Amino acid sequence: MSNFDLFSLAFRNLWRRKSRTILTVLSVVIGTFSIIMMVSLGNGMKRQQEQMIESIGGLNTITVMPQDMGSKQKEINNATMTQIRKNPHVKTIIPFANVSVNLTIDGIKDSFIGGNVKAIANNTLKEITQEQIEQGDILKANDKMGMIFGNQVEVYDNEAGPIDDKFSQKYLFQLGFEDTSPMATQTEKPQSKKIEAKLVGILSKKSDLASDSIYISEKTLGDLEKENKKLENPTELVYSGNNKNQSSNSSKRKYYSAEVVVDDIKNVDEVEKELKDMDFQTQSMKQIVDQMSQGTNTVQYIFAGIGSVAFIVSAIGIVNTMLMSIYERRKEIGVMKVIGASVSDVRNMFLVEAGFIGLLGGIVGLFFSFIASNAINKIFMNAMVQQGMEMTEDVQVSYIPWYLYIIATIFAFLVGVIAGYLPARRATKLKAIDSLRSD
Question: What is the mean pLDDT of the chain?
Answer without folding.
Answer: 79
